[in-house]
């Protein structure tokens, strides 16, 4: 961000470990490689043996929930201990690290403890800054811009939502850089406790000004789907979870919906199913999936398993097409008119047309799918495995044992390697 933002220059400490330049004095990080003679076999029933061959691990100072960010010559990973790491894309060695604050410890509910940097970082190739949102011991949320070269702090902006109690907010979705703004999206803690309202902060990287979108007029309406929003030409598409308006006859409060926002987080369109009150009452809302764009449609499928095709330019005024989808959690992968949905019971592929067609189902591969190098890469975060699936059939090509994974763990493909957050660092897979 420009100098008009509050800045805090940080020098580089002298302590080095191997070839890694440390930007603070936290304990050294150990890199552990694991190799196995187990073999992989390919078949459509997903019964291949998971292998540790080609898998190495970089142990960091906390769990990595957010998808690592590709910075070209570096890969950026951020931990729940509020530390950002720059890793070598060739061998995963730590080039620098920067500890920004002690983390928050939620009380009453929540399933991530401690709570530091949870949403995936985003890298700006123009300014060469990497952005993260921390949560400190007082539950204050701060958007930092760090220099990609050495991790020193270039900018910082407080992004606590204007409504509710910040102690019950969580910045879970991936940060998004769009039209010169960084979008930070907020929902509640697991358990849906406390006084909070879902929100989106749009931070102008040139001026540091913050514009807000509030998701609900009645409270709650968490915006927590872990991937990035759907990106259109002049708007972003977000999903909103269940709100407090949940009885027939109550005024609509904006929740259980897909909302389109402009660069200043102003709402330009919105879709909500006619069942929104019942969805809210039964925790069957759309807020668990990030909207996807494919074949001229916005695709959304939330917790209920009901899929919708929406008109991107007319969310509110066009009758949607419905189709049997799945309970979907996170971001889909898209290839032309084929969408790979992040289903709780395993990835499902659909061809998008006037009436979507189901193509295949890969049980157990329940993470957020990523399409790269002719394969669908997706985790089974229950069993700590990474799958390589055939995009045409869903058959398992290979499986890798990658260690204990956080919910919705998603790989980042950098060249010939995959970088995947784990509960104690980053796994690096060389297929």
UniProtKB/TrEMBL annotation:
Residues 33-52 are annotated as: Disordered. Signal peptide: none annotated. Residues 60-244 form the Pyrrolo-quinoline quinone repeat domain. PANTHER family: CELL SURFACE PROTEIN, OUTER MEMBRANE PROTEIN ASSEMBLY FACTOR BAMB. This is Pyrrolo-quinoline quinone repeat domain-containing protein.
């Amino acid at each position: 961000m420009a100098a008009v933002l509050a800045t805090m220059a940080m020098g580089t400490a002298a302590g080095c470990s191997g070839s890694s330049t440390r930007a603070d004095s936290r304990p050294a990080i150990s890199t552990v490689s694991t190799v196995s003679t187990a073999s992989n076999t390919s078949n459509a029933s997903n019964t291949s043996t998971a292998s540790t061959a080609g898998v190495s691990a970089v142990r960091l100072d906390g769990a990595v929930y957010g998808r690592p960010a590709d910075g070209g010559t570096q890969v950026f990973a951020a931990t729940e201990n509020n530390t950002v790491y720059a890793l070598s894309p060739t061998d995963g060695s730590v080039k620098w690290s920067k500890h920004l604050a002690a983390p928050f410890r939620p009380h009453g509910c929540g399933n991530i403890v401690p709570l530091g940097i949870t949403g995936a970082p985003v890298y700006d190739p123009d300014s060469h800054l990497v952005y993260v949102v921390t949560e400190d011991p007082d539950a204050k949320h701060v958007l930092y811009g760090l220099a990609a070269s050495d991790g020193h702090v270039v900018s910082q902006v407080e992004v606590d939502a204007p409504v509710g109690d910040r102690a019950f907010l969580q910045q879970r979705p991936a940060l998004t850089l769009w039209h010169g703004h960084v979008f930070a999206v907020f929902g509640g803690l697991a358990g849906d406790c406390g006084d909070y309202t879902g929100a989106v902060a749009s931070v102008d990287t040139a001026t540091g000004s913050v514009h807000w979108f509030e998701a609900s007029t009645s409270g709650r309406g968490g915006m927590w789907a872990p991937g990035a929003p759907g990106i259109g030409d002049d708007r972003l598409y977000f999903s909103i979870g269940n709100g407090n308006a949940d009885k027939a006859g109550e005024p609509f409060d904006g929740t259980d919906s897909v909302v389109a926002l402009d660069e200043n987080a102003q709402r330009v369109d919105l879709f909500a199913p006619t069942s929104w009150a019942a969805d809210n009452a039964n925790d069957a809302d759309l807020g668990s999936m990030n909207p996807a764009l494919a074949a001229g449609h916005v695709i959304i499928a939330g917790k209920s398993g009901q899929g919708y095709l929406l008109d991107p330019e007319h969310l509110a005024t066009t009758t949607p097409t419905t189709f049997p989808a799945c309970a979907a959690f996170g971001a889909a992968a898209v290839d032309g008119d084929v969408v790979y949905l992040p289903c709780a019971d395993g990835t499902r592929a659909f061809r998008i047309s006037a009436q979507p067609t189901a193509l295949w189902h890969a049980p157990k591969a329940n993470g957020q799918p990523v399409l790269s190098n002719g394969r669908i890469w997706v985790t089974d975060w229950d069993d700590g495995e990474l799958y390589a699936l055939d995009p045409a059939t869903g058959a398992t090509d290979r499986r890798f044992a990658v260690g204990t994974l956080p919910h919705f763990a998603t790989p980042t493909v950098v060249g010939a390697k995959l970088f995947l957050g784990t509960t104690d660092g980053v796994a690096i897979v060389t297929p």
